[in-house]
Amino acid sequence: MKESTEFEPMDGETFEVRETSLREKLLDAQFDHAEIKTEALLILLNGPDGSGKGEVLIRLHEWLDSRTVSTLTYDINDTDESRRPGGWRYWRDLPRRGRIGIVLGSWYHEMILLRATGEIDRSTFLTALERSHRAEAMLAAEGVRVLKIWLDLSSDKASERFRNKRRGPGSARQPLVVEWSEINTKKERKRLIEAAHEVIESTGPGDTPWHSVPASDPRARDLEVGRLVLTALQSAAAVRTKRRGKPPAVPRRITRGPSALAALDLSQSIDRDTYKTRLHNAQAKLYRLTRKKAFAKRGLMLVFEGNDAAGKGGAIRRLRSALDPMQSEVYPIAAPSDSALARPYLWRFWRRIPDRGRIAIFDRSWYGRVLVERVEGFAARAEWLRAYQEINDFEHQLNGSGYIVQKFWLAIDQDEQLARFEAREQVPHKRFKITDDDWRNRRKWPLYAAAVEDMIVRTSTAAAPWTLVEANDKRFARVKVIETLIARLEAEL
Amino acid sequence: MKESTEFEPMDGETFEVRETSLREKLLDAQFDHAEIKTEALLILLNGPDGSGKGEVLIRLHEWLDSRTVSTLTYDINDTDESRRPGGWRYWRDLPRRGRIGIVLGSWYHEMILLRATGEIDRSTFLTALERSHRAEAMLAAEGVRVLKIWLDLSSDKASERFRNKRRGPGSARQPLVVEWSEINTKKERKRLIEAAHEVIESTGPGDTPWHSVPASDPRARDLEVGRLVLTALQSAAAVRTKRRGKPPAVPRRITRGPSALAALDLSQSIDRDTYKTRLHNAQAKLYRLTRKKAFAKRGLMLVFEGNDAAGKGGAIRRLRSALDPMQSEVYPIAAPSDSALARPYLWRFWRRIPDRGRIAIFDRSWYGRVLVERVEGFAARAEWLRAYQEINDFEHQLNGSGYIVQKFWLAIDQDEQLARFEAREQVPHKRFKITDDDWRNRRKWPLYAAAVEDMIVRTSTAAAPWTLVEANDKRFARVKVIETLIARLEAEL
Fold this sequence. Notes:
Two copies of one chain form a homodimer. The first copy, chain A, has about 500 residues and is an alpha/beta fold. In chain A, helix 1 (about 10-35) runs parallel beside helix 9 and helix 5 (about 110-115) packs across helix 8. Chain A contains 20 helices and ten strands. The first copy, chain A, has two domains: about 10-240, P-loop containing nucleotide triphosphate hydrolases (Rossmann fold, 3-Layer(aba) Sandwich); about 270-490, 3-Layer(aba) Sandwich (Rossmann fold), CATH 3.40.50. In chain A, the strands form two sheets. A five-stranded parallel beta sheet of chain A has the order 2-3-1-4-5, sandwiched between helices. The model of chain A has no long low-confidence stretch (mean pLDDT about 90).
C-alpha cells in the first residue's frame, strides 16, 4: 500500500553524493557556530516509534563533530527530576551558546501522550501547548534556537516498521527509541498522530515553526534533517551579538498608578521587649510549620530584595536560625558567571530550585534583571521589558508544581540609608564597609524607585505575592518577615 | 556518675560574654576568607548520636554569615549517588575557595560504622583510613582546608542524652541528627567509640589532625568548636596564593628507563580494503559488547591524548559511531573555567563520571596537568609532581567501583606532524586551521616527549593501562583503538 505522498526511494549513489557535500557544509557551519557562540541550538527530534528517531540520531552524530553535541534523553521515572517542576530537566541540561543539544522526548512528549490516551481534554491540551510556545519565545529571545522536527509517518506504517525492526537482525547497530510504550491500540496510535499534527500546525511562521519531515524513505529523511540542521546552524552563526543596554538618565516608570512605596508607613517600630517575645514565638512557630508532613511535599522559595543597607542580611539570619540548617540553603546572588551568561537569564535560578520539602532563600534574586540590570544598563531595554512576563511564567510553574514562592521588598527611606551608611563607616569591621558602588547606587535612588514600583505592579501575582516590609526599624522588619511567612504557610499547608 | 574529664558546666553569663566576642571575630574572619578566596573550608562534624551534632550545626549557622556556608548532608540511599564511586557526592558538592561547607556524615562514617558492627576486619579498616588520609593530603595541597571535629562523649552518656532529647519537649527547635541508626546494642555503641578513637588518633600532626571536643557541656562544646572554626578561617585567609610554575627550558624526564615512544614502529599501516572490513566488524562487535547486561552494571571512561594532529578527533568519531548516542558522551577538555579553578584540579573530571552502564569519552583529559600544564608552566612543579599519584588514586577509585578506564596515546612522529600541518594549511575549511599555538607546541616537541614518557611510566597501572597507538597511518590507529577496547571489554565483562 503506497501513500500518496511517497515517491521512489532514493538510491544509494545519489545519497552518497549528497551526503558528502552536506557533511562538509555541516562541519563548517558547526565550527562557526561553536566559535562565534551567539546561540545554542536545541534540536527536538520527535515522531512515532518506527519513524527512525534512533537512526536519525546516529546519523547526526556521524555527521557532526561530537565534541560540541550532547544527546538529551530523559527517563520519566527519574526521581531527582520528577520531584521538581516539569521544565527543570531541560534547564539543567541546557547547552551553552556554541553547543548543540539533541532532545529525545521533548516537552511535547507528555501533552501528546496524554491527548492520545484521552487523559486530558482539549482545553488542557491547548493550555499546555500555549505554555510551550511562551517558553520557546523566551528561549529564542535569550539565545537558544529551537529546531523542532517531526518525523512524519502514518501510524500504520510506523508501527509496522517498528515491529520489523524490533525483530530484524539489522537492529544490531540501530538502537530503538521507544518513546510511546504506553500507546498500544490502533485507535491510540491514530490519536497520537492526530495530536502530534495539531501540535505541529499550531505555531505560526513567526514563531519557531515545526518541520515535518517525511520519514518513509530513510535516506531522504536523513538528508532533509541534515539540511534543516545546516540552515539552523548557519542562521545561528549569523546572529549579531546583543548590545548592552543604555542606562536610563531620567527615572521613568513603565506602569501607571499610585506609588506603592510612598504608601508605606516607615515609622512603624517595635520596642525591644516586644521584639524578643514576638521573634521567639514566631521562630518557634515557623520551625514547626516547616516540619509538618504537608510541607515535605511542597518546597519553599524565598526572595529578599531591598534598598542597600535595608537589613536583608539581618532579616535572613533571624529567619534562617528558625529553620533546620539541613533543610535550608541561602543563595547570595551576585553578577552572573561566564557559564550563566552563556545561557538564558533564568538558568541559574532554575538550577537552584530546591528539592521537595526544602527551603531556598535568595539574597537578591532573579529580580536583578528588572532592578540593577535595568538601572545600570546591563540588560537592554527589550530584555528587561520582557523579563516581567518570563519571571511570572517561572513563578507560575513553580507554584503549579507545589512550590511556595514568597517575596519580600525591604524598604527604607533615604535619610535612614544615609544614617546607616555613615554609621557603618565608623565601624572598624571591614565586612560593613560601604563601597563606592553603594554611594553611586544611592545617587540613583529615583531610578531604582521607579524600577521597584514597576516590578511590584508587574510581578505581584496571586501565586507569588510581594510583601513590602517597612524596614526603617530593623526589629519591625524582622518580625514582619517571619510573621508574614507564617501566615502564608498556614494558608498553604 | 561523673566522668573524670568533666568540669563544672559553664554558666549562661560567662557563655554570653565569650560568645559575643567570638562571634565578632568569626564574622570578621569569615569575611576575609570569602574575600581573599585562597582556600575552601570543609568542617567535618562527627560524633556519636546525642553528642550534639545538630545543636552545633545550628550554632554555627547562627554565628556565621549564612551566605557563604552550605550544609552537606547525605542520604546513603540516594540512587544517583550510590551508583557512582564513594567520593563522588563530596566532589559534586565541594565548596569553592572562599566558601565553607559543613559536612554531616563524612567519608569516615562508613568505615567507623562497619568497624563497629564488625562487618570489616581491622586491615580493611586501616586501608580505608589510609585512603582517606591520602585524599585529604590531596585536598590540603589543592586549597581545601579540612577541619575534622569529633564531639567526644562516652557511649553511655551519649545514648542517654539522645534518648532524653528524642522524648523531650525542648526538641522543638533542635533537629536531631540520627547518624548511627544501625547501632543498637551497648556493645556496638562501645565499639563505635573505639573505632572512632582509632580514627581520631591515626593522623600525625603533619596531616590534618582531628580535634576531639568534649561534648558533655553544650556551652563549652559550642565555644570550642567556634574557636576551632575561627582558627581555621584565619589560617586559610593567611595562606599565600599559589605562584605559577616556571616552564622548564630543557627537557628532563623524572623517570628512568628506555623510551616507550622510541620503541614504537610508526610505519605500521593498513590498506583501505582491510581497513573497511576490520573497522566495520570491530564497530559491530563493540556495539554488541556495550549492550551486554554485564556492561549495564559497569561504566566506561575513555581517555584520548596524543600529539597535535595525531588524529584524536577522527579516532573518536569512528569509535563513537559504533556506540548508542544515547549511551555515550564526548567531553572535549579545554582550559579550566573559573569555577573549576576555584576547586581542586580533579573536580571537573569527578563531575563527569558517567552513570552506570554509560560511556564518557574524554578528548584530552585529567592528564593535562602532567602534559601541557607541566610543559607550559601552568602548574607549579610541586603540583604536577604530585598529580601522578592523585591521578592514580582517582583511577583506582573508579576501578574499585566497577568502572573501566582505558587510555590511549596517539603517537605520530615530527615529520608526519609537519606534513599534516602543511596539508591543513592548504584546506579551505577554517575548522582545520593550524594556529600559532600549534606551531609553538611543535617547537617544544622534546619537552612534550619527556612529559609523555614520564606519564606513561608513572600512570600505567593494571587498573587503567595506557595503550600507545601508532598513528602515522590513520587507518591503523582507528582500528587499533577499537580493537584494543574490544579486547579490554571482553576481558572485563
